[in-house]
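Lab meeting notes turned into a lecture example. A postdoc, R.K., suggested we walk through two folding results consecutively so the class can see how the record format repeats. The first protein's sequence and structure tokens come next.
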Amino acid sequence: MKIYKVKGNKEFEILDNEVFLPELVKIKISSVILTSNDICLYQGKINRTYPIVPGHMATAIVSEDRPEFDLKRGARVILNPYILSSAGGEGISDVKLYGLDADGFLRDFAALPADNIIPFPEAVKEEEALFTEAVAVALSTINAMKINKGEYVAIVGGSIVANLIGQLLLYYQAIPIYVSSEPRYLEIAKKCGIYHLIDESRDDPYQRVMEITGGRMAEHSVIYAKAGVSPHFLFSLAGRGGDCIIVSLSSSIPRMETDISLVSKKNLSVGGVSCGVDEINAAVNIIAQKQLDFSHFIDKSVAFDEVIPLFEELSEHPLRYICPVVRV
């Protein structure tokens, strides 16, 4: 057994033993996607209790027969990263995340409640199943808006989640307009069938969206919260009465500042999405339908014993890879 815990000072604590509660299902981790949250934990940029095991997007194999849960040894499974706890202070269910609020999946073995283990649908590949959480967040984003067929949605910020939102909008017969300053994300979006692409480093997004929409601007706008993305576009690209969504893979997002005068001037509705807990099952179903293209995302893959060099590299160059994966 091997468990990687980050200490928040660019160092790891490596453990080789852990006792699992008998009511939990023991699993062998297969693959883990590293996200910006994992690197920020490694650097100590997120206020958490350290050390902690990072990793919240993962697949696994069931290590033992558990007939009471209809799980067989050797079954390939998706790990639901969301931890449902008791009602919060305002009577709202508090949703936490493995790998951020509790020990995650950067380890060779783990044990989870049966409710957090989802068997692979037939014909789903591991390289598709790994993105279940991202698809769930993308679905939650779309469901936070009242989108009708043929409406325009401006999506700002290069990311996997932003790409999946665009692909899902095409599936629901809306029209995505993908805005990014990073050519690699624009190229991937093009390969995934998103045809309205704006390189904000070369073109004026406001003028281009005006041209594409015939002067109406987009009925909806989405911005993926990441360093270097201007939140001003969230409001400037939306038409009057539109809705605007700030989206992230977790509640830990970079500080973003902008002039909000356009919100009242345009009568915009503004919301946020950082969780896909209610859409996990829907995400698994749409992945099984083969409606989404994941083939262009993973651009770095390392073995389990190469974790530390990869974290060191990503700490120095956090944007080097679109989707680095650890094969356990």
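The second example is placed directly after the first for contrast:
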Amino acid sequence: MQNFAHMAHPQTLFSLHLYSYNKTGRSFYPSTEASYQAEMFSGASMKHSLSLVLALSVMAALAVIVLVAGTRYALHSSTTKTDPMEMPLGMVAPIVLAPRVQQVFYISETPCGGSLKYIQDLIAHYGVYGIQFLRLPNKAATEAAAYQFRKGDILFFQYLLNTDFTFTDVRDLVLRYELCLVIPIHDKYFLNDNPEADYVYHASLHAAEAFKIPSDKWTLLQLATHIVFPSQFIHDIFRAHMKLPSMVVVPHIDQGLWRHLIVPPINQTFHIGVITSPTYYKGLDIMEVLFAKVSEHLGKKVEFFLYSHYDGSRFPGVFARGGYTENDIYTRLDQDGIHGLLFLNRYPETHSYALTKGINSGRPLLYTRMGAVAERLAQENDAQKFIATDNTDVAEKFQVLLDFIQAHGGQGGVDARFWSSLTDSSLVVLPQFYQELFLSHQGQGESA
């Protein structure tokens, strides 16, 4: 059991952890423990009495502390530390941040999934600075809002899905109002011929022969001020077909990582969880083979808990637990006594917010060795806890996962208060890229 009281009161006030920016590789990733400590000095002047100088120094120090404490939404930390007791909760920094832009427009009508969360996270973490995020749902609404556009405003464009825009419409909008176009890449949408297909995988993308990006998409990509890739994996696929200076690798806004091992006591049943969407793309057919074939191991039952509305009634030992929220998934895994997780895919992920939660849950997991999931877990360097499969040997590797769980049953465990602290917004990692895109950094006392 972790010492929760210590985790809730970290001793890292005024520590500012920054992201390093690799100009040659165009990537923003956490620097290695880069931090700046705010220090206060006092001194005496030969021309003034010591007591007066000390009094003034104390007053100045108190003024700085009051000003810093009042900066509620200061620069969030990026951290490579591995335990929440080392992560600053509610950390503030002696820097005043002001919005660089007053309004941000976005075209994105996806009703769920990672692309929706991406926009929601931008609004949640930067809307507090007074920046307005304005959705453009269709052409009529855009024309009605035309008077609001100003040169240099930011336009985020994700998909045409569920809108009446064309790529040409978006291009004309950017050119007419001289907008700063930002295109976040979530999948291979911009490499597909069909504008209504957001997740179609083409084997030709990896073929040696030249692949021609559709001309309307290519024109828009060339206009972009920033094309943002959340992983090196998806960046490299696009890089094989286009080379633009606007291409940059930036991890998504996401929870910081906590690395530990938690395997509840096993009793007579292995409980395996699935916190990804039950779709073909995310390996549902592979998991259903396990559902049908694996019902016991080492004399114990094997049960599967899917945190979705998947109907697994035709499989004994498969239970649909309904959807989850950002804040309750960890406690629900504890309540169900989940011992391990599955992250099986047919198509490669480009980031996976669910994987962040899987790592933070402390559970061992079985994953398909592809895409950003493999890229991220390779950095964890723990092949015993994170077991890889190429999907052809999934049954054998699932046995390895169960054996690991059997060997570590009853290890670790934290209480609900800890999980609440882990989901605190102050532990969200905000990449430097977005800080620079949205905010200007000012010294204390300067005007906006």
